[in-house]
């Protein structure tokens, strides 16, 4: 886990990724346990960001994460990164497909390279912080 203090006001915690990490099944299991324990012990969690690459299909593990968060009442925003790697048509097509195949509503499309989606992501994070998800 990596902790990032933002503007001295809140933390963004980067939890281990599941979908594309090249680790053993046992290591993944230990991450799952660590992640579940983290969410269980942190009453102050305001929400989650699930970072996905729109060039890849959403895997079972990512779908399970969304379901797990939903079952616990933890608000989640899906963020598609690396959007600069796709043309506007490709991105639109991929977004439509991912939305059809999952319960993703209103994802944020973000590119660290171009800055696209930066303001929207910031607004979404502010809304999470100002809201009361009960966690």
Over the alpha carbons, how many angstroms does the gyration radius reach?
A: 15 Å
**CATH homologous group name:** P-loop containing nucleotide triphosphate hydrolases
CATH topology: Rossmann fold
- pLDDT averaged over residues: 83
CATH architecture: 3-Layer(aba) Sandwich
Write down how many β-strands occur, each being a DSSP E stretch of 2 or more residues: 5
Shape: globular
Q: Give the oligomeric state of the chains in this entry, treating copies of one chain as homo and distinct chains as hetero.
A: single chain
The share of residues in extended strands comes to 15-25%
Number of H- or I-type helical stretches: 4
Identify the notable features of this structure and list them briefly.
globular, 4 helices, Rossmann fold, three-stranded parallel beta sheet, 135 residues, 41% helix, two-stranded antiparallel ribbon, alpha/beta
Structure description:
With 135 residues, the chain is an alpha/beta fold. The protein has a single domain (2-130), classed as P-loop containing nucleotide triphosphate hydrolases (Rossmann fold, 3-Layer(aba) Sandwich), CATH 3.40.50. The chain has four helices and five strands, in the order E-E-H-E-H-E-H-E-H. The protein has a three-stranded parallel beta sheet with strand order 3-4-5, with helices on both faces. Helix 2 (60-71) links the parallel strand 3 (48-52) and strand 4. It is globular. The mean pLDDT is 83.
Fold blueprint:
Elements: E1 2-6, E2 10-14, H1 25-41, E3 48-52, H2 60-71, E4 76-80, H3 88-100, E5 108-109, H4 118-130
Parallel strand pairs: 3-4, 4-5
Antiparallel strand pairs: 1-2
């Amino acid at each position: 886990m990596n902790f990032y203090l933002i503007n001295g006001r809140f933390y963004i915690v980067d939890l281990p990724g599941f979908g594309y990490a090249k680790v053993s099944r046992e290591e993944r299991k230990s991450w799952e346990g660590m992640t579940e324990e983290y969410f269980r012990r942190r009453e102050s969690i305001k929400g989650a960001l699930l970072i996905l690459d729109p060039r890849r299909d959403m895997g079972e593990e990512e779908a399970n994460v969304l379901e797990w968060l939903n079952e616990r009442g933890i608000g989640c925003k899906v963020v598609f990164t690396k959007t600069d790697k796709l043309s506007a048509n490709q991105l639109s097509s991929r977004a439509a497909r991912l939305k059809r195949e999952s319960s993703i509503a209103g994802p944020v499309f973000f590119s660290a390279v171009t800055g696209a989606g930066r303001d929207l992501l910031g607004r979404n994070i502010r809304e999470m912080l100002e809201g009361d998800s009960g966690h």
